């Protein structure tokens, strides 16, 4: 008993010390974790404030360089030749070239990636969709005008976006149509098997309900894709038809359409006085070819018009 009495206190001290050591370690780790989370929150808030101020603080996009604008860290344009290659890239797509052909052309003119290696197709396509080139900082679910100079205009950039996504729209439309056709064929097959008692009626009913629901969803998707798709050949065809018989188009149009057409033909308006009548030079050229035009009678709201 004496020996046991002498040995108990050391064991008790060891246990207490071990427990104290574990608690301390956990407390220190928790404090460090809280400090890290606070630093993360402060950093995130600072980056959001930077984006809202229009500053770009990440690695510069292709043909920009990290620098300072008005003494504050942001983006600066690279040398003029490399900037012109970016503008040339957007111009090629805007002119109607495919991404592959435009990439081949711009490679031959000397555009490379940041490391100097050959520009890949994915990098080229990502570059064409990068809003930094129209002076936008996009991050943290925000899109803010930057404090740096754009490389391309908004009009060119968004025309290029429509061309880049047109193939996806066409492919998506074809995929949805194919799926609808497949569902209809499967429905016919299932019904025939039900007639010949190959499949139970309960299973047929379940299949047809699921197929019908999916078909409705696909039709909605098809309508959305169709509304967003621009059929360029049809638009051009209709445009040439209008230009070929402008007088008939004028007679058939309502007042709103005629007003739009007048605004197109007379973008700076029409001026009339006691002895003067003025319009734009391109319209005045019609008077140099009187044998090719006839006069269309006025409809009440508009003046007599030349029929080309």
UniProtKB/TrEMBL annotation:
Where in this chain does the record put each Recombinase domain? 83-166
Classification via InterPro entries: DNA_bind_recomb_sf, DNA_bind_recombinase_dom
GO MF terms here are: DNA binding; DNA strand exchange activity
Query: Which Pfam families has this protein been placed in?
Result: Recombinase
Stretches of the chain forming a coiled coil according to its record:
none
Q: What is this protein called?
A: Recombinase domain-containing protein
Which organism does this sequence originate in? Candidatus Cryosericum terrychapinii
